[in-house]
Structure prediction request, 99 residues.
Amino acid sequence: MIAARNDSCDGQVGPSAFAKPVCWIHGNVMADNGGAPAQAILDAGYDGADLLWDLSGYDNSWDQPGASRLPYALPGKEWSELRRRANDRLWRLLAAITD
Prediction:
């Protein structure tokens, strides 16, 4: 269960990597997140996580201290455009390799 709060997108995340509006995910209350992950996550060798990013919205920002994450490096508000794009491309490459 997650009670999401964001300041810039009213919970709307676009369907593509370059979709707008940009979201800043932060200040959430979480309980039992990742307790029953999708079979595809388990098949890929991962455990459940509080925050699971499907790689959509490369310029979204995540700021949730203490939360488990998948992937492990989620973009923060302080990340530069170069760092965001490099992170996005790295995870997309890894996803393609493991498919």
Observations:
- The chain has one domain: 2-98.
- The first strand starts at residue 2 and ends at 3.
- Residues 1-8, 11-19 have pLDDT under 50 and may be disordered.
